[in-house]
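As the work plan foresaw, our protein records have gained a structure token line. A representative record is set out beneath this paragraph:
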Amino acid sequence: MMHTADPADRPKDSSMIDPRVMDPAGEIVPHAHVDEEELDQIVAVLDAMRRWRTVERRMSEASRKYMKLGETDMRALRYLIAAQRHDRLATPSDLARHLGVSTASVTKMLDRLAAHDHIRRLPHPEDRRSTAIEVTEQTQRVARESVGRSHAGRFHAAAALSPDEREVVIRFLDALCATEPPPQQ
């Protein structure tokens, strides 16, 4: 689907990502060498990404509200569920490393998750000084129903592409990831 150069056809919200609007002189986003039709298509790609991020945030927020959890709690549960499905014990230290937070923060989070019957702490079978964490069956079921259905839709959208189209998408998304500035020292 080719997007036309008619400004009336541009999505209303795209002005915030259109360099012709935000950077008309091309000081940050040089675009004088790109014809109008191509610019429209590039802006349409960026606008589609913006719409996807909006939908993704809404779905994530809905899942978190449904499960009455914060974003880090949901990330922790996804990690723990994946570990269980691979018959791998997860410890608080593993979780802290995965989330990039302190073990003290993980302890508080696990207290919260245990108080709401999302997880159980069990003695580690090989290390008496450590604890194993498992997600309760109820929480696994709720996660599967809320998050799993959303993931299934994304999987089917990717599966509907041809192998060549998937390679283009992968290359594009990897290129976007490469635009992340290095961490500040």
